[in-house]
Design goal:
Elements (H helix, E strand, L loop, with lengths): L2 H5 L5 E5 L8 E3 L9 E4 L12 H6 L4 E4 L10 E4 L2 H12 L8 E6 L4 H14 L4 E4 L3 E4 L2 E4 L9 H13 L4 E5 L2 H5 L10 E4 L7 H4 L2 H13 L22 E5 L5 H5 L5 E6 L21 E11 L2 E7 L8 E5 L4 H16 L4 H10 L8 E2 L7 E5 L4 H12 L8 E5 L8 H13 L2 E4 L9 H14 L7 E4 L3 H10 L6 E5 L6 E4 L2 E4 L2 H12 L18
Length: 546
């Protein structure tokens, strides 16, 4: 491919030097991956400035360079742009032939609940007979193949996102569901993806170590909704209800503090959802935003919550439409919200009620989300990804309903190093208020002092003057912490291990060590019956033996 073809749709080009007919056989932003005729993209990253490696890339055979600095007088063509990360994303989209244009694309963002909502929508689409694809924190599903998207990966990098979408296009995918994180949006990992629907679950306290403020974090999420206006309309065979065209649609959570902020972003159509009925007049549209299709407001009614799942009716849409009754094996009010979000997105895509019922009922769980581990014990044992204050609070509230009337909630959790420090206090306070036994342990301490991290959380527990918690333990080894929790559990209690969920490694220093909470909890439970192996499944640097 020629350089001119690749940069034709590249926005914000500041200058071009050299001949644009240079031949390009690959694109790379890591000079170590450069070969003959590679287009090297340099940008200033978090810890490394890629411009330092331009001459190394040329020595390895780079035929052209894209960068943010003025041309330093290179012997190859140079394209100066205002943002190298954004340029890389657009170049990868062009390299793969803009694959998102070949399918409807749904972006799902939020602090908590993204993966569950994405899996629910994917299940509904499959139940409707559509060829659907999925890219989530846990995996990517393309055709009949399932790919692991990484150990601590959130939204994959732009080259991987575009590669996945190209594979989906080649598999004749009709709708793709993409879990979209704030990092993925702010770092242009999904730039070049042309979205049709933007869905938010909630926006709460998280990632302030990266974004700085809640407002900046919220604005990063808003990029998904602002991107709708910049994407062309797509004609789809199943979208007869809209004349074949998919209106650019925002799916908003009325129960969340982000609602008014996101409702002010101009879109063609808005669908809201919530457990609280909408206020008269619906969402405000500002800045010239006109809701040309008419807003739809979905509300969960007749909610019935049990340890076996949830049942509720979805009311909304036209006055003549009957409530949609849904049954799900997922537990907790927060999953009602996730189901509502997926239902709203499915309705926006024109899915029939029957497909929504079947798709919702088919999702028995998502790895690491309220995942039960049963080894014959007489108490509930659960693994959950809850790693934010809001998610921890909702998880503990949910499992309180799973315990016997006199049963206790025992929680094992930690706080990550080199991440938002305010979470350590908030999560300590929440654990003290909502659990009976708190076990604080390691969760990716990275290069921070683990004992200091744990101490911050434990101090918050003590200062909170808890209504419930009568015991707080600090055990640096996560396996030992889990073992301590199950040894103190009695019949009718609930042990919940929070923070790692689906993840398969834990970071100490700069090294990722193999780890799965599910296996660690199963080993501890087996030990209660004398059936565990002598050694645990994983040995972390903190292991001292139990």
């Amino acid at each position: 491919m020629q350089l001119a073809s690749l940069v034709a749709d590249l926005p914000n080009i500041l200058a071009v030097t050299g001949h644009s007919d240079a031949s390009v056989s690959s694109i790379a932003s890591d000079s170590r991956q450069v070969a003959q005729r590679t287009l090297f993209v340099a940008y200033r990253g978090v810890g490394v400035d890629g411009h330092r490696y331009i001459h190394d890339a040329i020595a390895r055979g780079a035929s052209a360079v894209v960068g943010e600095n003025p041309d330093p007088g290179l012997p190859v063509p140079y394209v100066q742009v205002d943002d190298g990360r954004a340029a890389l994303a657009w170049l990868m989209a062009a390299w793969y032939g803009h694959p998102s244009r070949a399918m409807a694309l749904v972006g799902i963002t939020g602090t908590d609940g993204k993966t569950t909502t994405a899996n629910l929508l994917f299940s509904i689409l499959r139940a409707a007979g559509l060829r659907a694809g999925l890219i989530s924190t846990v995996n990517a599903v393309i055709g009949d193949r399932d790919y692991d998207t990484g150990l601590h990966t959130t939204t994959p990098d732009a080259p991987d996102v575009q590669r996945y979408l190209a594979q989906m296009r080649d598999a004749a995918t009709e709708v793709a569901v993409l879990e979209t994180t704030s990092h993925g949006l702010a770092q242009h990992r999904v730039t070049g993806c042309e979205f049709d629907l933007a869905v938010v679950t909630n926006i709460t306290h998280e990632h302030l170590d990266f974004h700085g403020t809640y407002e900046a974090y919220r604005e990063a999420k808003a990029l998904l909704f602002r991107a709708l206006a910049a994407s062309p309309h797509k004609l789809r065979r199943w979208a007869a209800h809209t004349g074949g065209l998919l209106p650019k649609t925002a799916i908003l959570n009325r129960d969340d503090a982000s609602y008014e902020f996101l409702a002010a972003i101009p879109v063609e159509r808005t669908i809201t959802y919530g457990l609280i009925p909408p206020r008269t007049g619906g969402p405000r549209t500002m800045g010239g935003g006109v809701d040309t299709q008419g807003a739809v407001h979905l509300t969960a009614t007749n909610l019935r919550n049990s340890p076996d799942g949830v049942e509720f009716d979805v009311s909304g849409g036209s006055a003549a439409s009957a409530p949609l009754g849904l049954v799900s094996p997922l537990v907790g009010a927060f999953n009602v919200s996730n189901i509502l979000a997926a239902t709203a997105a499915a309705l926006a895509l024109g899915m029939e009620p029957a497909a929504i019922r079947v798709g919702v009922a088919a999702v028995a769980g998502v790895p690491g989300r309220m995942q039960r581990i049963d080894r014959g014990q007489d108490f509930a044992a659960i693994v959950d990804f809850a790693h934010t204050p809001n998610a921890l609070a909702r998880a503990l509230e949910t499992v309180r309903g799973l315990a016997d009337p006199n049963g206790r909630v025992i929680v094992v959790f930690g706080c990550a190093g080199l991440r938002d420090r305010e979470k350590r206090r908030l999560m300590g306070e929440i654990a003290a208020a909502k659990a009976d036994l708190v076990v604080i342990t390691a969760e990716d301490p990275r290069t921070e002092d683990l004992a200091a991290i744990m101490s911050e959380t434990a101090s918050a527990c003590a200062a909170a003057k808890p209504k419930r918690a009568h015991a707080v333990a600090q055990i640096s080894d996560r396996q030992g912490a889990i073992l301590h929790a199950v040894r103190h559990a009695h019949s009718g209690d609930v042990v919940i291990v929070c923070g790692k969920g689906h993840e398969q490694s834990m970071c100490f220093g700069e090294t990722e060590h193999p780890w799965r909470d599910q296996d660690a909890l199963a080993w501890a439970l087996d030990g209660l019956r004398g059936q565990a192996d002598d050694s645990p499944p994983f040995l972390l640097p903190t292991w001292t033996g139990c």
